[in-house]
Amino acid sequence: MKKSLLIVDEDMDAAHLLRQQLSSSQWLEVCGHAASVEEAWKMLQACKPAMVLLGGLAETERGVLCQQFRLAFPHLSFIAACVPQELMWEPFFRNLGIWVVTKPVQPSQIEALAMMPSAVSESGINRGPQYGEFHKSPMQSEVVPQQLQHTIAETQFYPARPVTAGLPSKRLITVYGPKGGVGKTFLSRELAIFFSMQKKEGRPLRVLAVDFNLDLGTFATTLNLPRTPNIYTWVQDMDDQLQAMAQRQGRDPQTMRNDEWQELAAVMPLTSHDISKYMVRHDETGLDVLTSPRDIRHSFEIKDYHLYLILETLKQSYYDVILIDTAPDTTDATIQALFFAEQVVMVGNPVVDSIENIQRLLKLLREAEYPEERIQVCMNRLQRKEMFTLEEIRAYFQLHPSKRIFSIPDDAEVKKSINSGNPVMLQPGRAAAKDAIETLGKALLPIEPGKAEPAVRPKTKERPSLFRWLWG
Ligand SMILES: Nc1ncnc2c1ncn2[C@@H]1O[C@H](COP(=O)(O)OP(=O)(O)O)[C@@H](O)[C@H]1O
Ligand SMILES: [Mg+2]
User: Fold this and answer.
1) Which range among 14-23, 65-74, 93-102, 130-139 shows the weakest confidence by mean pLDDT?
2) In the structure, which protein residues have their CB atom closer than 6 angstroms to any atom of ligand 1?
3) Choosing a second label site near 215 at 20 to 30 A (CA), which of 10, 112, 138, 246?
């Protein structure tokens, strides 16, 4: 049976053309075209399509529209047709379970998607593709008819990039908190160290920490590590590649606009083979760190498409766990880190301004239908007696009853451990802060019992990080 498709797009010509092209399709039938939200609602009622192609409507955001339609018609699946400049929205759409294709839309792409088995969640609601499913090859699907297979093989589901088969499952964890000084960098460091001390199938986990505080990052400092190479080293190499690509296409890199670079970046081949040259190694634990630039001015040259390419490449890399430390802002780097992540640690302190900002952020993410199960709230620097209890904070955040709030005690040793570059997790003996970080770490990355063995190498000599940073 043919699947019915509703086209929602202001671009009349594009919609008519696609409709014409699909008129002889064996798999799909266009049941209507709506050029406004109102029209789209009417057609949804009237023709009950199985799929909706969201081209573009100036009056609304596609993500919001998709969620509204889904509430009323839970079994709909959605495809967003994007121009290359909309590249940065791809992780956002992906999180909403929306397929993404490039404009101009190829009818074969839509047919191929119509043939995909729909992802039905436990609740029975069709959420479309979930995170990670974009990289499943459609060729694996048994329901795809032979004659379509070659088309699918050639189809570029923009900008989904193939993932090398056989890679171990990995976790991308973003540590975020919409206020400075709450302990994001401290927790990123401790979690990264904790994970690098765990083993998987007899070998230590391969862990990477990324400093996404592009301008004022200090992650390297908190581990006494040098700041070269860094993200900017990688960005320069990417720029060389992009410029060479532009020249091969007969274009003048000097006159190219940001959106043209974005377009080029979308088709740039990725390789994660030799990215270790951009990392600095923490010898004691084997943790790799991708540090932020040394010079603030270098951070100004890092563009959204660079960050996108970095995140996509890291996703294909050999690391088991990637931890991203972020800045307390809502810049591109932070938003991309949130939307690429499988888990987010939302860090705050039990003070009213920090709590207020977390609440605002949660509201924003809820409105964007960000999957809340990915967020772990962590209150850092808890003292014995606080003005607000965790229960009060939980009620204020309107968290799901099953959701716990993690807490890390305020500990005088933390300051010392940051100044000396010696993580709490590597200090001998037991400490409340250490136990609390371990609890959080285990919740983020459940490790089978018996598999957690410390894999720490002998200690090298300590040096106070501040001095090294100032004069080193
Ligand atoms: N659990 C804690 N106990 C005591 N001090 C802490 C704790 N967590 C963080 N701090 C202090 O707060 C400072 C800021 O932490 P940091 O991780 O740099 O915050 P952020 O990255 O959110 O800006 C640290 O230098 C440390 O002195
Ligand atoms: Mg920080």
Assistant:
1) 130-139
2) 177, 180-186, 380-381, 408, 410-411, 414-415, 418, 433
3) 246
| Residue 164 domain-assigned (yes or no) | no
* 145 and 179 assigned to the same domain: no
User: Of 120, 154, 188, which residue is a domain's last?
Assistant: 154
Q: 162 pLDDT band (50/70/90 cuts)?
A: very low
pLDDT digits (tens, 9 = 90+) for 98-150: 888 888 888 888 888 887 654 333 333 333 343 333 333 232 333 333 433 33
- The ligand 1 atom at the shortest distance from the C-alpha of residue 381 is 1
Q: How far apart are CA 175 and CA 344, in angstroms?
A: 6
Among residues 192, 197, 109, which one has the least CA distance to residue 158? 109
C-beta atoms surrounding 255 within 10 Å = 8
Are 199 and 131 part of one and the same domain?
no
Domain boundary among 93, 124, 154: 154
262 falls within a domain: yes
pLDDT tens column, 415-464: 999 999 999 999 999 999 999 999 999 999 986 554 444 444 444 433 33
- Ligand 1, atom 16: nearest CA belongs to which residue? 183
3-state SS assignment for residue 297: helix
**pLDDT surpasses 80 at 164:** no
pLDDT band at 46 (very low <50, low <70, confident <90, very high): very high
Is the model more confident about 58 or about 223?
Answer: 223
Predicted local distance difference test score (pLDDT) of residue 36: 92
> Please, which contacts does 113-121 make with residues 24 or more away whose CB atoms are closer than 8 Å?
113/51, 113/77, 113/79, 113/157, 114/3, 114/5, 114/27, 114/28, 114/50, 114/51, 115/27, 115/141, 115/143, 115/144, 115/145, 115/148, 115/152, 116/141, 116/144, 117/141, 117/143, 118/77
From CA 157, how far away is CA 67, in angstroms rounded?
22
284 and 313: one domain?
Answer: yes
302/339 same-domain check: yes
Total domain count, the chain: 2
With a cut of 80, say whether residue 335 has pLDDT above it: yes
CATH of residue 146 = 3.40.50.2300
Residues 145 and 176 in one domain: no
Distance 381 CA to ligand 1 centre (A): 8
Shortest-distance Cα residue to atom 17 of ligand 1: 183
Q: Report the candidate in 440, 418, 426, 435 with the shortest Cα–Cα distance to residue 346.
A: 440
Containing structural domain, residue 446:
171-471
Probe target for ligand 1 pocket from 354, 414, 427, with the most ligand atoms within 8 Å of CB: 414
Task: Name the residue with the closest Cα to ligand 1, atom 27.
Answer: 415
